[in-house]
Target: Large ribosomal subunit protein uL10
Amino acid sequence: MKTRKHKEQIAQELKEKFQKAPLVILTNFQGMTVAETNQLRRKLREAGAEYKVVKNTLMRYAYPGTPVEQIKDAFVGPTGIVFAFDDIVAAAKALKDYMAGDGKEEPKLKFKAAIVEGKVADFNMIKQLAELPSREELLGQLAFTLKYPVNAMAWSLENLFTKLVTVLENVKAEKEGAA
Model:
């Protein structure tokens, strides 16, 4: 049994995470096995996110004054919380597989509510977020976009020099042939 001081410490840690995390997703994990939950935690950790299960009674002390207060009504029944701090797209992608199901069965991990950048989000918004390119893909596209004009200019200059050399060789050949 946790002491009052320990519970206050947990509530304070949660409050800090609620304030810092740009993506907070509340889920219902009822029906998931311990192995499935551990696999979910591992996958989220790889994406730079974390998954916590905390009693709803502790949440009442953690969410006041945070963006999560907007979805306080979702703290009913078994609640798992996803906190994404760095790459919210990667976290959404990691969750997508667990919330989509296989088509034959209903997914075991169910969406309750979410906060994205301080605003309430629905499940469709989380799915759209999961379909965005990852941070690395976006950085690659940006690098290509920035590199393209430089490459085009280098190619143009090289092409000009090649044409100049060709013209000069033709002029030289004409003068030698006329002499």
User: Anything to note?
Assistant: The chain has a mean pLDDT of 83. The CA atoms of residues 38 and 166 lie 68 Å apart. The longest strand covers residues 110-116.
